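Folding problem:
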Amino acid sequence: MPDCALTLCVDNGATLAQTAGTGLTGDVTVSADPAEVAGAFEGLQATLQTGYTGVRVDGLRLVDATDDQIEAIRRLVGEYCVAVFPGQYIGPEDHVALIARFGKVTHTPGVNMHPDHDEVHVVADRGDPAKPKSGGFHTDTCFVAKPPSFTSLSAIEVPDHGGDTLFANQYIAYESLSEVMKGWLRGLRLKHVVSGTDRPEAVPDPVWHPAVRTHPVTGRKALYVTYADRCIEAEGMTPAEGESLITYLYEHSLAQHAMYRHRWSEGDFVMWDNRCSLHAAVYDHGDQPRTLYRVMCEGEVPFE
């Protein structure tokens, strides 16, 4: 193993530094340099979970993280879209305090929160054995002016099997578009509206966000689109044109080679960056319980 404070490894054991920039799929790149975050992780290992998306970080108790480690995590999640921290067993109060170190804690307007912790959303659901389905890929709470930068889930109760969460890398979605399509999207905004909340009247007005946004930490561009219930119009286009474009972009955003699929274990802590990823739950766990605590961090106004 290379002698550095943080080692980022791919599945075949090579370090990311050895694989980055070697023509992974033509125009698609991985831009992180492990040396930039190495100093913050004293003796820890962050393992790349797929070709492009998801890292697993071992050897760190998150509630005891130093400020430098928090900044390194911010960079890791920003580069690889999602980070998994197994065996954390973080309760509601520590969960909120941890996310507050990344920025202002926020929540989705119009959803019911934990009865004793008003910044914690309880994600509790059961699958339908007769009709297993995906919840649909989306970015969290895109229908507000400042959508959340990070979402985190702490696994309280998980099924023996099923109930996974999938993540799709939106850097790859953008980078794999043709130059012509990138040109068409330059300056284009999409209209986002509320859906899927307990009280949609809490967000009465739609918002416009760029179809492509620049990540403030990595400087990389990512496609910023979500499913049709929330992303309903392209500025300056007819309804038919906008619908066709949004449908194409959404389907394009779900390339399987750019995904990470997380199988939950009790005590897992998973954190992802909504500015560069989509995610979806898979409801195939039948009547087994699945309870996760969600806390989010407010982001900035999206910019191109």
Observations:
- The helical segments are 16-19, 34-38, 67-80, 92-100, 170-175, 179-185, 239-252.
- The longest strand covers residues 148-157.
- Residues 10 and 19 are 8 Å apart (CA to CA).
